[in-house]
Specification:
about 180 residues, alpha+beta, about 50% helix, binds zinc ion
């Protein structure tokens, strides 16, 4: 059976979860979530092939954010009433894509060029920010969240959200979270 793409706005609980990271820096009402958009995986398969990167792991999916539109290849998360019931990985994935929306709001469509350039330049390492140790040493050099490439930024915020939900957010992460404006 062919799965159809469906579009929706953010659920209220997704908005509340996103606000823990982005506060009011995102115009949440303009965000549209598209689920079942299988082309996002196909796009990733082709771009990996073109760049001679290893194939996408079987259970890993690829999402794409274009402006206010977040495209996911699968049905996302089931509506729940309480943030504490949210599937953390699923929401972290959403947070990653919302980071691109946040970048779009700040930079306009330039964000897309910068993101693509980072992918071409860094290949499979494009998301790698060096973990907490990397964050700490970069901070000592005066780096902010915005000093990282756009995929690293999204990765950092995604990780920060995971730590936030489990109560493990320390001062290193908090400093970068504070850079969200
Ligand atoms: Zn991304």
């Amino acid at each position: 059976m062919v799965e159809m793409t469906s579009s929706r706005r953010l659920h209220d609980w997704e908005m509340r979860a996103a606000q823990t990271v982005f506060a009011d820096a995102i115009d949440y009402n303009r965000v549209r979530v598209h689920e079942g958009a299988v082309w996002t995986n196909t796009l990733d398969d082709w771009s990996r092939r073109l760049r001679s990167l290893s194939p996408r792991p079987v259970k890993q999916h690829n999402a794409v954010a274009l402006g206010f539109h977040c495209f996911f290849p699968v049905k996302h998360i089931h509506p729940v009433a309480q943030v504490r019931d949210v599937n953390a990985s699923s929401m972290a994935w959403m947070l990653h894509e919302l980071a691109h929306v946040w970048q779009f709001q700040h930079m306009g469509w330039r964000y897309l060029l910068f993101a693509l350039a980072a992918h071409l330049r860094e290949g499979g390492r494009v998301y790698d920010f060096g973990g907490e140790a990397g964050l700490r040493s970069c901070r000592r050099k005066g780096w902010k969240l915005q000093s990282f490439n756009l995929e690293q930024q999204a990765s950092i915020l995604e990780h920060a959200y995971r730590l936030l939900t489990t109560g493990h957010l320390n001062s290193t992460w908090y400093a970068y979270l504070n850079d969200v404006d």
